[in-house]
């Protein structure tokens, strides 16, 4: 995986036609707990051949999804479709701003809350929101199905015995992301 050697803000794996953009949680690095994001990126690239970018989320960093996607697009000029995966603070970014990019077709948001506007305005094919059972945001899980104004397929899922970081449930976390990847 190529990465920005100065501050390791991005990890990038080249691929064809689709970009899977993974935005980490607050203060998250491209490596994160047990290299879970890099392992996912490798699995997506190896099994599907798609491009994958993992974007860190340093403390105090601006939240500008369009700017990030533009930076990555300078390396990936043939990408026709973008699939966003956001975790915690990263999910906030992809849900609040994902609908602004017409190439975004699907969003997987993990440990979601505080972003009804993004869900309502997203017109891609699917939004899936995932919660850890012990994450503080789990109380918002039923709101997804109650948003009747959604123009897209929206669903939520709670992962049993999982905390905010999915410690002890990393295999379940990775499996869930790969199921989302393979849905196309």
Automatic annotation (TrEMBL):
Source species, domain of life: Bacteria
Protein name: Alpha/beta hydrolase
